[in-house]
Structures are given as C-alpha cells and as structure tokens.
Design a protein that fits this description.
Number of helices: 15
Pfam family, one: dsrm
Number of strands: 22
GO cellular component, one term: nucleolus
Keywords: RNA-binding
Radius of gyration: 25 Å
Protein name: Double-stranded RNA-specific editase Adar
Organism: Zophobas morio
C-alpha cells in the first residue's frame, strides 16, 4: 500500500507544532548531493494502510511512520516582514529540505519531500526483494521434487517458534521462524544456497549429494548461531526487552575449534546517549550501539582474566606473561570473532542498500567513499564529519552530541586493538580474528570501511601494534530484517554474568545505579590490579589519579593513535571527533 500524502491545503489547516532545537554550524552546509540512504533506513517498515486519514498533515504522517525524524531550521532569507525559512528533516541518514513563509510551512514542505521519496523507495525495494527471493520453496520443490519437510513447534522464543527441516537426498536443512511459512522459507533458502543453486539462472548446479562448505563459512554460521541462541536464552522470560533491531556479540575460540567455542558477549542497541546526560564521572555509557557494547563487554572479560592472574591462577587465564616478564599477552591460538546482525553504521553500510546490489562498487573513487562520519543523536543514520570540535558548554547549551560511527570505531580497533588505553598498561593489543555480518554484507564496502581506507596513508606502526585485517564473512542465510522501530534500550550481557543488564539508551544507565561496563566501573577494576600483577609501563609508580592522565600515560598507544588519526586526514577522510575533554577528568579510585 502506498503512503497517502496529504495535500497542501489540508496540511496548512492542521499544521503540526514542533519545537526547533538550535544546531551546530554543520547544518548550514548542504551534503545532500553525497548522502545516500543509510543502511538502517527500511522503506518497507514505513508502509501504512491506505486508509490513513487525509486530514493529517505530512509532518504528523512522517512522525507516525518514523519516530526518529528530526526537523532543523537551517536558514532564513528575505526581509523581516516577509521571511522565507529553510528547514531540513533527517530520516534514516537521508536529508530532505523544504521552504516556507513560516517555520511550520517549511516543516510541511520538507516532510512532503521525505514522504514522496519513501513511497518511491518502498516500491523499488519490493521489486528487488520479489525478484531475488521469489519462490524459494517453489524453486526448491521444482528442481528437487523429492524434497520432504518436517514441521515442529518449539514452544520457545517468539522469533524461533517454528522449526522446519527440508530434506534433500541425505542432506537436512533447518530453518527457524515465527511462523511455519517463515521457517520453511528459511530452510528452502539455506538448501538452495548450500546446494549451490544458481539464483540468477534459476537452475541448480549438478547435485552430487554432498554439500560443500568451507571452514570459514562453518565458523561464521556457528558463531552467529551461538550468539542468537544465547540471546534467546537470556530473553526467554523477558519478551519486552527481546525486541531488537541490531544484535551483536563476540565468540572466543581456541585454535579454531568450534566444539569448545565460548560466547563472551551478547548485546543489542542502536542509540547514543542524549547530550544532556553525558557524565563527568564516567558513570554513563555514551554509545549504546550493539557492536560497541560487545567490545566493552570484552574489556570486562579481559579484567576477569587478569583477576585470575592476580589470584595466582594464571594457568586458567587466556593471558600469559610476555617473554621479557613485563605485562602479559594473549595465549597462542585464542581468537575473537565479532558478529553483527547487519553492516555497522557509517561507511560500511551507507552504500550497502540491500542484499541484492552489485558485488562491485561502480564508483569506488567518489569523494564520499570512506569518509569519517558521526551518528545522529536521538536518531539513526550518520553524517560526514565537518571538523567540529566538541565543547562541554556547547553540548549543555543544546548542540548535538557527536559520536563516531561503528564503522570508524571498528577501523580504529583494527589498529589500536580492542583493549583500550588503560589495559595497554598490562597487556599487548588484542585484535579481531573475524567480522561476521548477518545481513547487508558488501565485501568491498566492508573491507574499505574496516581497514582499506587507511592502508596507503598510514605510516609505519610499531610492534606490538599492527594494521589488522580480519576475515570478513556473511551468514549462509541472511538474517531477516527486524522491521520495527528502534528500541530506546540496550541489552548487555558478558560471560560470567547470570543476567543481562538493561540500559536506558537516553541516559546511558540501567534503571538503578550504573552499568558495570561504564568507564567508572572499569577504571576501578584497573586500580585494583595495580601492584598485583606486572605491567608493561610501570603504571603502578605513577602519581596521576585522573582517568585522562592514566590514558595519556599509555605512550605507545597514544603514539599509534596519533598515527591513525593522521592517516584519516592524509586520506582526505576528515578529522576524528572526540568527546569534550571534561568527561575524562574524573578521579579513578
């Protein structure tokens, strides 16, 4: 069904009242010529029944369909008695513009432009998906007519209520879903993929009766399944917080063995803290995107393992002493795999519009490729950095809090490691072995975003640091879209915890107290290790007690960070936007 866009006369009679928040200077610039749709933008989710009341104006309709819509006044022209206002509205990373004699009229004009675009994209998306995914069950039955199906109701998690097994010859392919049809379709898709069915030619390759699967693909599917099952187990009695748009997690393996793989972190989330709640004591989480929270869980797990060393149980720890006796390093064979249910926001996803696009980037040299981007506060999507330096008083006065995208952060982890500055006082850098996506996998865009964009401009990195190039993989069967509005909470679970934390994304804290994964709590764990285990930097002899000073004292980490940030600038990708320095000037104890 198409969206019913109210006419201008109706809109003017029922203008929507909305407070306009002052914005930083960036919004006076027009980047619309290089802003494609963000990967989080799902035109299909905004389809509504054609019976939408025609007495609603476009602003009301847009806000009903997309709660993250943000209207901003970006200009005013003309004489005072007859002004013309220009307004922008951002929907899923795409910006639309409108003008009018009043702010309200300009809002209506911008909303109308957005709704027209959403209508067009919704139709395009339907054509793409219908063409690519048409009749998976029908095709399987046509080319493998002896296929049998087994149905089972699990009685478990909502999204996996039904299990259907497609049996082709001696092979079995299992699909899970909230309905029998969804589970059957997933099983059919899995069978067609693993039987090397040619989806473009709509015919199979010669079936030998044996499914060929690489070790890398087995690993990717296994890691994702472990994380999905753990999340379902955690949320089995909490259906309210089981709702999610992005799921992430980290799995640890030893020597590549799947049999003893361990889930270290499971997280959900797509939001960042509101600027008014940023903490000067390190008590709030700033970024509640799932993959960022997974990394914070991993840091907590590293502290658990160092605590074992402090208790003279090093043989049980994943860390062992360095050869020079100063500090520790990861045991040989221990590897970490990051799973994200969709492409990380920013450069990896902003050009990956769907599963069925071209495998090759037709415009790899466009200036918008590889740009550093910041997340949109209280919304979704991302915008290119503009050299803004964030200040504490500016944020308190209403400027948007800028947070670097997940693509940019993962790229940073691939140079500086996952452990952060504080832990480098005790351990060598730890890097990801693989990054696995559940959907929107475009290898060229992902490779560029996670390490390729700095490959040719980064100066020599001194050991033990390196430019990490993790294995990039996708699931055999892409994760189905989570076509719902983003939740304003995040679920955070780390190995060793019996329950998951539920974080209010607007304030960066759980309902009571603070998160055990915030800077304040992790820095306390750091202090408890001082003097109990050997360090790389003799940090135990420092007299500094401010969080920012202890970070600065990690000299090798700091130097490598400067090399990385210079590489972004040298590549013409922009300048990294840091949080105001005041937030790290708290005493750790």
């Amino acid at each position: 069904m198409a969206i019913l866009i109210p006419d201008d006369n109706t809109a003017k009679d029922t203008l929507y009242k909305r407070q306009i928040t002052p914005q930083p200077p960036f919004f006076n610039k027009d980047f619309s010529h290089k802003e494609p749709i963000n990967s989080y933008f799902d035109p299909k989710k905004v389809k509504i029944n054609s019976t939408v009341s025609s007495n609603k104006n476009p602003v009301q309709v847009l806000n009903e369909l997309y709660l993250g819509a943000s209207f901003v006044v970006i200009g005013q022209s003309g004489p005072d008695h007859l002004p013309t206002f220009k307004v922008s509205v951002t929907v899923g990373g795409r910006t639309f513009y409108g003008t009018g004699r009043s702010k309200k009229e300009a809002n209506v004009s911008a909303a109308t432009a957005a709704l027209k675009f959403i209508n067009q994209e919704s139709k395009k998306e339907e054509v793409l998906e219908d063409e690519a995914a048409k009749g998976a069950v029908m095709m399987l039955n046509e080319w493998y007519p002896n296929t049998a199906y087994q149905y089972e109701e699990t009685g478990g998690f909502v999204s996996a209520r039904f299990r259907v097994t497609a049996i082709v010859g001696t092979e079995k392919f299992v699909g899970m879903g909230s309905t029998k049809q969804a589970a059957k379709t997933e099983a059919a898709n899995l069978a067609l993929t693993k039987l090397q069915f040619n989806l473009q030619a709509k015919k199979p390759t010669e079936y030998s009766g044996v499914v060929v699967e690489t070790e890398e693909q087995k690993m990717a599917d296994h890691v994702a399944r472990l994380i999905q099952e753990k999340f379902e187990s955690l949320m089995s009695k909490d259906l309210l917080h089981a709702k999610r748009k992005v799921l992430s997690g980290i799995v640890m393996t030893r020597n590549g063995n799947l049999s003893d793989a361990e889930v270290v972190a499971v997280t959900t989330g797509t939001k960042c803290i509101s600027g008014g709640y940023i903490s000067t004591k390190g008590s709030s989480l700033n970024d509640m995107h799932a993959e960022v929270l997974s990394r914070r869980c991993l840091i907590s797990y590293f502290y658990d393992q160092l605590d074992l060393v402090a208790k003279f149980q090093e043989q049980k720890s994943i860390f062992t002493k360095r050869t020079n006796g100063k500090g520790f390093k990861l045991r040989k064979g221990v590897e970490f795999h990051l799973y994200i249910s969709t492409a990380p926001c920013g450069d990896a996803s902003v050009f990956s519009l769907n599963e069925y696009g071209d495998k090759m980037d037709k415009h790899p040299n466009r200036s918008c490729r590889g740009l550093l981007r910041t997340k949109i506060e209280n919304g979704e999507g991302s915008i290119p950095v503009d050299g803004t330096r964030q200040t504490w008083d500016g944020i308190l006065q209403g400027n948007r809090l800028l947070t670097m995208t997940c693509s940019d952060k993962i790229c940073r982890w691939n140079v500086l490691g996952l452990q952060g500055a504080l832990l480098t006082h005790f351990i060598e850098p730890v890097y990801l072995k693989s990054v696995i996506l559940g959907s929107l996998f475009h290898e060229e865009h992902l490779q560029r975003a996670l390490y390729g964009r700095i490959d040719h401009t980064i100066k020599k990195v001194v050991l033990p640091y390196c430019i990490n190039r993790p294995n990039l993989a996708r699931l055999t069967v892409c994760e189905s879209r989570q076509a719902s509005n983003s939740t304003n909470f995040s679920v955070v679970w780390c190995r060793g915890n019996t329950q998951a934390e539920i974080i209010d994304a607007s304030i960066g804290k759980p309902e009571l107290g603070v998160s055990k994964f915030c800077k304040q709590e992790l820095s306390r764990r750091f202090v408890r290790l001082l003097g109990k285990i050997s360090s790389v930097t003799t940090v135990e002899n420092m007299k500094a007690n401010l969080y920012c000073d202890v970070k600065e004292a990690a000299s090798e980490y700091k130097a490598t960070k400067e090399v990385l940030l210079d590489a972004f600038v040298a590549s013409g990708l922009g300048t990294w936007v840091s949080k105001p320095m005041e937030q790290d000037r708290f005493v750790i104890k």
